[in-house]
UniProtKB/TrEMBL annotation:
It comes from Fusarium torulosum. It comes from the Eukaryota. This is AB hydrolase-1 domain-containing protein. GO terms for cellular component: membrane. Residues 257-281 have a biased composition (Basic and acidic residues). Pfam families: Abhydrolase_1 (PF00561). InterPro entries: AB_hydrolase_1, AB_hydrolase_fold, AB_hydrolase_sf. Residues 23-133 form the AB hydrolase-1 domain. Residues 248-305 are annotated as: Disordered. PANTHER family: HYDROLASE, PUTATIVE (AFU_ORTHOLOGUE AFUA_2G14860)-RELATED, MONOACYLGLYCEROL LIPASE.
Amino acid sequence: MSQTTPNIASNVRLVGKVNDDYPLIICFHGSGDSCASWEPLADLLSASYRVLLWDRQDPDVRPGVAVSKLLEYLDSAQLSPNFVLIAHSYGGTFARLFLERRPQQVAGMVLVETGQETAIDSQIEQRQYDNQILANKPLVVIRGNTLIGKWQEYNKEIAAWGSVSNPSLQIQKQLLDATDREDERLKKAQLQLSRNNKYVHIPDCGHGVIGARPDAPPSVVLLPTLSFIYKQRQQQIKSFFTLYENHSTSSITMPSPKEKQQEVQKESKREETSTKAEESPSKQPESTTDVKEDDAPEPERKYASKECCPACKYPELFEKQSEN
């Protein structure tokens, strides 16, 4: 049975001014939550950035269907060609599917307490890890303390017993430790999405990181993250143009008329020498030295057109950029 969703335009809210220098920020809320959870952050960012708050509303809609509707809306509204995705909890599933559909348009990601969901296809998940789908685009993974409530209960029981000698408490601690290690493993696994990643652990708040800090608004956690993404992308763009300008000004020079004439004379002499050699060939002694495959000269690379695009015109520049 096919699923239908209401007009998504009624489920989104745009906050902030248009900023052509920065991608549109899209917030994905968790299960049982709404985009209202992101409003404190969106209001704070609105002075400099544009934020899209997306309310899925229907809890039963399949992630793939919901993401398709969101992409249709973004294409028709033409809000921005690039996006920064911020997801919390189950919202990470939708953000990862968005990334799968439009990897070239995602400028960076912030994943807050995500990774434990099972809704995303395991093959898609592993392929994204294997291919490092974000490449060098900034990625930040934020982990809270999912078991903070359980640990508090455990500490109360220890205080009541006066020691940890109780077998029940020992088993409880072993389970908590094992669960905590698995949670950390799942969170850190997401760092494989990008070579340019950052891991943040906030042990004094629970799963609801974006609203669980009584001493600080969500922006204290996420604003440095967004700043990290912005600076990284700006640095990548700056580095590219610096390399391009240096290459085009220092490595490529037009020959002077005198140099052109000298080159013509050299070419004429080479042709004359080649003609004489063909008219009176002399038998050369056969070489007895075997040439190893590793010692063979590297064949000259052929490009379709040297004027096709910068990547064809200056391939070594783009190779350096990809290595970085």
